Amino acid sequence: MSDPMGTFRIAVEIENPARPGPRRGLGEVLVDTGPELSWFPAAVLESLGIERRTIWCFRQADGTVLSRWTGPAFVYAAGRTATDDVVFGEPGDLVLLGARSLEGLNLRIDPVSKRLVDAGPVPAATAA
């Protein structure tokens, strides 16, 4: 689903890596390469038993700083899966798929078609 100004939204599923099996789907997740981490509603993460592990501080565009819990999750999007730390979003927070999840999924944004596509081969170190 497309939004104005070049943004778009996709469906995402979340799973608890400590208890694989049940997943929760989220529609209308904003794809956003600005934020490092993905933000999902705390109620969804808690319903899967995902553990709050670390508090991160985030600076908003207006300069204010807020704190949020993060925890590990399996993230499923565009036919791929990755493990990432995700933010326990509070009411009023955006629900978004961030840059680190996109990198873990090895997906990139195609700005013309407004969809996620394969990012191609991943760089690797070579032995000298």
Description:
- This protein has 128 residues and is mainly beta.
- It contains two helices and nine strands, in the order βββαββββαββ.
- It has helices at residues 42-47, 99-105, and strands at 9-15, 23-31, 38-41, 54-59, 65-77, 80-89, 96-97, 107-110, 115-118.
- The strands form two sheets. Strands 1, 2, 3, 4, 5, 6 and 7 form a seven-stranded mixed sheet that branches.
- A hairpin with a 7-residue loop joins β1 (9-15) and β2.
- It starts with 8 loop residues before the first strand and ends in a 10-residue tail after the last strand.
- The mean pLDDT is 93.
Q: Which range best describes the helical content: under 10%, 10-25%, 25-40%, 40-55%, 55-70% or over 70%?
A: 10-25%
**Helix and strand element order:** EEEHEEEEHEE
Principal-axis shape = globular
Radius of gyration: 15 Å
Oligomer: single chain
**Biggest beta sheet attributes:** 7 strands, mixed
Which residues form runs of ≥5 with pLDDT under 50? none
Q: Kindly state the mean pLDDT as a whole number?
A: 93
Provide tags for this entry:
128 residues; single chain; 2 helices; 10% helix; mainly beta; 7-stranded mixed sheet
